[in-house]
Specification:
With 206 residues, this protein is of the alpha+beta class. The chain folds into 2 domains: 59 residues; 99 residues, no CATH class. The chain has 8 helices and 8 strands; from the N terminus they run ααααββββαβααβαββ. Strands 1-6-5-7-8-4 form a 6-stranded mixed sheet. A two-stranded antiparallel ribbon has the order 2-3. The longest helix is centred in the N-terminal third of the chain and has 16 residues.
Length: 206
C-alpha cells in the first residue's frame, strides 16, 4: 500500500493541477505548512513573494492574522465568493471586506524581566479563552530575522520569513507555534512587540 505521505503528495498534486496554485497554497498554509514546505509539496517554481502573499491571504481568511491593531473598530477580512461562468462552471474569487466591530479600550501593562515566568504561565492560560483571542504583534525585517536565527528553531524562522513580504506590522493569533516563538524570544529578551490579551482588555509590553 502507498505510504500516507505518497497519498498526500498525490492529492496535493491533483489539487494544484485541478484548482490552481493559489488555492493549493492557501490550503497548505491553513494546515500549518511554511514557505519551504509549501514549495516542496507543490514542486512549484513560483516566486517566493507570490507564495507568501497566498500564505497571508490564508491567515486572514481563517482569522489567524489581523492587519489592524486588535481592539480597534475596523479590520480587513478575506472571504471567497462563488461565481459561475456562462457555461455553468463554478469558480471562486477573493474579496476583501472591511468588518466593523465594537472598540475594545485596552489598558497598557508593562512586565519586568523578573515577572516573565509568571507572565508566560498567565499567557498560556489566557490564550485558550475562546471568547476573546490573544494576539502578538510582529514587524519582521531582514536584520531582525537574521538575529533571531540564533534563538529560534529553523521551522519557526521559516514560518516568520513569509511575513518579510508584508513590510508592515501584523498581529498573529497566539496559537501553539506563536506561543513557542514568544517563549523563546521573551526568554532571550528579544521580543519587541506587544501582546494583546482581549479577555483582560489589556495589551502587554516588556
Amino acid at each position: 500500500m502507498p505510504e500516507k505521505n505518497e497519498l498526500f503528495d498525490a492529492a496535493v498534486n491533483r489539487f494544484v493541477r485541478d484548482i490552481g496554485y493559489g488555492d493549493a497554497i492557501m490550503h497548505l498554509a491553513d494546515r500549518g505548512y511554511t514557505l519551504s514546505r509549501i514549495r516542496t509539496k507543490t514542486r512549484t517554481k513560483l516566486p517566493d513573494e507570490y507564495i507568501c502573499k497566498k500564505i497571508m491571504d490564508s491567515y486572514m481568511k481563517y482569522d489567524k492574522m489581523l492587519l489592524t491593531e486588535p481592539g480597534s473598530a475596523r479590520r480587513e477580512k478575506i472571504t471567497m465568493v462563488r461565481d459561475s461562468s456562462i457555461f455553468g462552471r463554478p469558480s471562486f474569487r477573493q474579496v476583501t471586506e472591511i468588518v466593523e466591530e465594537p472598540v475594545i479600550n485596552l489598558t497598557h501593562r508593562q512586565w519586568s524581566k523578573e515577572e516573565l515566568p509568571g507572565m508566560l504561565k498567565t499567557l498560556e492560560k489566557k490564550r485558550y479563552q475562546q471568547k476573546a483571542r490573544t494576539y502578538a504583534s510582529f514587524l519582521i525585517t531582514p536584520g531582525k530575522l537574521s538575529r533571531w536565527e540564533l534563538i529560534l528553531a529553523d521551522g519557526h524562522i521559516d514560518y516568520l520569513r513569509a511575513f518579510l513580504y508584508m513590510k508592515r506590522e501584523v498581529f498573529l493569533v497566539v496559537d501553539d507555534r506563536v506561543m513557542a516563538i514568544l517563549e523563546d524570544l521573551l526568554n532571550r529578551d528579544a521580543y519587541d512587540g506587544t501582546i494583546y490579551v482581549l479577555s483582560e482588555r489589556e495589551k502587554w509590553t516588556f
